[in-house]
Amino acid sequence: MPDVVIDPSFEENYAAMKGGKPTSVNWMEKFANVTLEYFNGGIKAQLDRQGFKDDDLLQEGLAKVPTSKTFKLWIVETMKNPGIHETFEDGVCYIQTTVENWEYNLPFVGEGLVDSS
Q: Which domain of life is it from (predicted)?
């Protein structure tokens, strides 16, 4: 997908973490790296595992859903669908997590992209 926008929402998510009760030890020291890992070790790794690189149909299907071509990390109070880490709203693919689950759900991010799109 050309022109993809990655929106880590550093300021908003940092404020959410600081205002919440994170269970992650030393979250402040790892905040930037963990944020980027949601995209690289999460979404990108899942797309690789699901075969997006070599599957034109999967690529086309995903390209149609986030019409803004934006993938945004979003810390929410409650997951809209527990266990589902991505949701599509207003043409944006939101990667969602909670303060309590910060960093712990990385391997599952992007797992439901095929089902969600």
A: Eukaryota
- Name the region of 90 (left: φ>0; alpha: ψ -120 to 50; beta: rest): left
If residue 69 lies in a helix (H) or strand (E), which one and from where to where?
Answer: none
Per-10-residue mean pLDDT of the chain, 117 residues long, equals 89 96 90 94 87 86 85 89 79 90 84 65
Identify which of 42, 34, 27, 29 has the alpha carbon closest to the alpha carbon of residue 9: 34
Dihedral, 45, 47, 50, 54 alpha carbons, nearest 10: -120
**Both structure tokens of 59:** 């690529």
Return the axis-axis angle of helices 27-37 and 10-19, rounded to nearest 10°: 140
Amino acid at 20: G
CA distances for 111 relative to 18, 25, 66, angstroms: 28, 25, 16
